[in-house]
UniProtKB/TrEMBL annotation:
SMART domains, A to Z: RHOD
Superkingdom of origin: Bacteria
Organism: Flavobacterium gossypii
Official protein name in the record: Rhodanese-related sulfurtransferase
InterPro entries noted in UniProt: GlpE_sulfurtransferase (IPR050229), Rhodanese-like_dom (IPR001763), Rhodanese-like_dom_sf (IPR036873)
Domain Rhodanese stretches: 14-102
Phylogenetic lineage: Bacteria, Pseudomonadati, Bacteroidota, Flavobacteriia, Flavobacteriales
Length: 104
């Protein structure tokens, strides 16, 4: 489901079953990420699918990329893999005005 930045962030704040998933490249991720995000690069192809398959399908996934296209694709793939709840951040990091931190 594609949702606006405001809706994505406010919903995330109230969701105790939430996981933030950053599907950008490692280089993009290292330039700044939404706090608490787990990075799995969708460009890894089958490697992406292997890593996503390891995730807990009962969680709610808040997915983002740089502009919203890769994360939309990731949400589609995750739906096909049996994930019930994924939310795509419209506009991605390019339009994000919430908190950002550098990964450790």
């Amino acid at each position: 489901m594609n949702i606006s930045q405001e809706q994505w962030w406010s919903q995330l704040q109230k969701d105790e079953n939430a996981v933030i998933l950053d599907v950008r490249t490692e280089d993009e991720y290292n330039r700044g990420m939404i706090p608490g995000a787990k990075n799995i690069d969708i460009y890894k192809g089958q490697g992406f699918i292997y890593e996503v398959e390891e995730l807990d399908k009962t969680k709610n996934y808040y997915v983002y990329c740089q502009a919203g296209m890769r994360s939309a694709k990731a949400c589609d793939v995750m739906g096909q893999l049996g994930f019930d709840t994924t939310y795509n951040l419209i506009g991605g990091m390019s339009e994000w005005d919430g908190p950002v931190e550098l990964p450790e």
